[in-house]
Amino acid sequence: MVDWTEKYRPSSLSEVRGNNKARDALAEWAKSWDDHREAVVVYGSPGIGKTSAAHALASDMGWETVELNASDQRTGDVIERFAGRAAKNATLSGSSTGTSTRQLVILDEADNIHGNYDRGGSSAVTKLVKSSSQPIVLIANEFYDMSRGLRNACQEIEFRDVSARSIVPVLRDICRKEGLEFESDALQAIADMNSGDLRSAVNDLQAIAEGRDKITEEDVIMGDRDRSVGLFEFLDAVLKEESAQEALYTAYDVDETPDDLTKWVEDKVSLVYEPDELARAYEFLANADRWLGRVRASQNYSYWRYATDNLAAGVAASRDRTRGGWTRYGGAPYRSTRDKTRDTVVRKIAEKGGFSMSTARREVLPYLSAVTHHCKPRELTVAMTAYYDFDTSHVSFVTGSGETTNKVQSIVEDAEELREELVEEHAGGAFAGMEDVSIDGENGGETDAATDGDDDVLNRDDESAASDEAEASTDDGQSGLSDFF
Ligand SMILES: Nc1ncnc2c1ncn2[C@@H]1O[C@H](COP(=O)(O)OP(=O)(O)OP(=O)(O)O)[C@@H](O)[C@H]1O
After folding, report:
1. Gap from CA of 48 to ligand 1 centroid (Å)
2. Which domain, by its residues, includes 186?
3. For residue 68, which of 131, 18, 115, 134 has the smallest C-alpha distance?
4. Ligand 1 pocket, 305 CB below 6 A?
5. 455 and 342 share a domain?
6. Is there a single domain that holds both residue 49 and residue 124?
7. Which residues belong to the annotated binding site for ATP?
8. Of the residues 285, 301, 450, 453, which has the maximum number of CB atoms within 10 A of its CB?
């Protein structure tokens, strides 16, 4: 299934609809960047084309792009590396100001830099924004959720919700390109239903069009079906049976909040999926979690639909095949104990790797879960357990294996031995250094790595990690998880 929002993402600023003034201001900012050298914040609701506009701008200007998450602590290093590369390119081309050598840095989630482990993150980004040798576009939903220092350091451009009047022609174009007949009222109804959010309008159009040559107003209205679905039926739909699109519809029919649905899917997915599928699914669950975080922070419940997209359609799309049979899903996720365990696990990962809590939770933990699924390979699971000093509940949580099984108990015992061996080996003070070891070529924190179950990231050598400039990997040359083998 090709996602139409990707397929029809604007490739030039002229294709970005409904925000002409903002669009022109952005083009002007880029053209005059050499004169002012300021970063710009592009802010507004989700799904109205902010990120697309930034990419389209780069394409219009002939600039490369690098997209990073502002709340990620390693962002600064990555930007500096890109900046260095750009400067080098400029020297090679004999031009120090040539616009073709620019790299547009797109910093997503600029309004989301907070949390204990991100303390100071905002001032770090502010510093970066002030000193960067490359143009930076910060993307935010809420301008005033950004620190004052950061706001003051940037120019600002507001993107407004896209009016239904501007949404209809986008939908019409897509229908024509897809060879899909339509009633004008159907497109109008979709535009009206999505109040300003062009991305969700395109998503709805694609969902309604599936399996049809023509869409009518009735199809759109009937799309809002009134059917109640039980949780196990929903889990079967997402984890075993239905296409991404159908799973999404089913999710809409369950009488539970996306928060609860995410917990259920997160809790049960490892009972059904193979490691590769699991790695992909966890990435979507991490996205769902991110949207739920935004709902909590902003109380804007319109973000729920993006959580649902991820937890239902995304997780279903992560499957390699459909499955039949009956699965013993067990009871409701034990949130209180599980949450506590998860928090401890995440904290250990964050402390060890020097990540923010959110990076540890969204990116490193899913990756570890995928590579040690059901404690396989065992050696790696022991190494992980030793490295993070996990106990049986932690190992059970990360690997999806039962806490009281002999397997988990013996892994924790072996890990204990491994740690002791290492203490002996490093006797004479070296053990102190182990306290702040980090994973070599810290790819565990990268979304890319998290999806790539085949890549033996934990063993990657420094050189390959360092040469991969598109990744936010940092290597401080210290010992790491691979030392535990
Ligand atoms: N103004 C627009 N013009 C054309 N297409 C748009 C526009 N806004 C959104 N879209 C469609 O929606 C998709 C998502 O848009 P985009 O990611 O740029 O939104 P955003 O405002 O950056 O959202 P978020 O805050 O969630 O990152 C695009 O790929 C495109 O298909």
Report:
1. 5
2. 164-222
3. 134
4. no
5. yes
6. yes
7. 44-51
8. 450
Domain count across the chain: 4
Per-residue confidence (pLDDT) for residue 458, from 0 to 100 = 35
Is residue 480 lining ligand 1, measured as CB closer than 6 Å? no
Q: Which atom of ligand 1 is nearest to the CA of 18?
A: 1
Looking at the structure, do residues 92 and 114 belong to the same domain, yes or no? yes
Asked if 317 and 237 touch (Cβ cutoff 8 Å), the reply is: no
Q: If the chain, 485 residues long, is cut into consecutive pieces of 10 residues, what is the mean pLDDT of each piece?
A: 86 93 96 93 91 95 84 61 54 46 84 53 74 88 84 93 92 95 92 84 88 86 58 92 92 86 90 91 92 84 90 96 84 63 86 80 85 90 94 89 83 92 65 39 35 34 35 40 49
On whether both 386 and 463 belong to a single domain, the answer is yes
Lookup: tokens for 459:
């063993």
Q: What is the token pair recorded at 126?
A: 């502010």
Give the position, in ligand 1's atom list, of the atom nearest the Cα of 4: 31
Task: Tell whether 151 and 182 lie within a shared domain.
Answer: no
Residue with CA closest to ligand 1 atom 17: 51
pLDDT of 299? 76
Which residue, by CA, sits nearest to atom 15 of ligand 1? 49
* Contact assessment for residue 140 and residue 111, using Cβ atoms and an 8 Å cutoff: yes
Nearest CA to ligand 1 atom 12: 199
d(CA 438, CA 481): 7
**Cβ of 86 less than 6 Å from ligand 1:** no
- For residue 203, the CA-to-ligand 1 centroid distance in Å is 11
Question: Can you tell me the distance from the alpha carbon of 379 to that of 371, in angstroms, rounded to the nearest whole number?
Answer: 11
